[in-house]
Amino acid sequence: MKHPRTADSALRQNFLRQLQKRLRRVSVQNFRMSIYQIASAALRLPARDRALLAGSLWESLGDPSATTAPIDDAAVLALSIERDEQMEAGQVQAIPYEEMMARLRQ
Predict the structure, then answer these.
(1) What is the pTM of this model?
(2) pLDDT per residue over 21-41, tens digit each?
(3) Residues 95, 51: contact at Cβ < 8 Å?
(4) Which residues have C-beta within 8 Å of that of residue 43, sequence separation ≥ 6?
């Protein structure tokens, strides 16, 4: 019996090979997807495929704490204040998490 981590790794590798085959069929000329398009497409995958993809992406980071961009507290605070002011002025409207996820899955 394979070790569970080895079995997961084999499943992930098989998934990535199948994904690469599918992508080769798509003409890559002028083929660019935004992160939102990628997320939307990924969220429509079956749960098992999403889990394999998530694991592959996570493993590709190596040490995620080492690759994280430094956080500029002043910029984060300024953006938070700006968003709050926009909501108070009625320029933007918050949406529930469930609705946001449903939109991404479309």
Answers:
(1) 0.41
(2) 666 655 444 567 788 888 888
(3) no
(4) 50, 101, 104, 105
